[in-house]
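Sequence only, no structure available. Ideas?
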Amino acid sequence: MLTLASDIDALARFGRALADPIRCRILLALREAPAHPADLAEKLGISRTRLSNHLACLRDCGIVVAVPEGRRVRYELADARLGHALDDLRGAVLAVEADRTCAEDDEEGCC
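Reply:
I predicted one. Tokens follow.
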């Protein structure tokens, strides 16, 4: 089967979203339930500015969406299947080698 550029782009966007521990924490929190930025920042123990930067990245990747609620904005996963994908990916990685940790990036950017 031929891999399309759009398939590669989609996986690269998902990879970029998962490449940062804070973004992973945001995605896991949003997997549980949609949330307002102030609540997310408090739950994750990070500044609103830092959270805002990560939410912008996740929006740019197409992974989360901002839903206006009057004067506030609520964030949620762009599609419920992303929550299932996070669960499946986490489960698969843990099933393969639960005791592994990813070392710092080497010169080639690989774990």
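The beta strands are 64-69, 72-77.
Hope that gets you unstuck.
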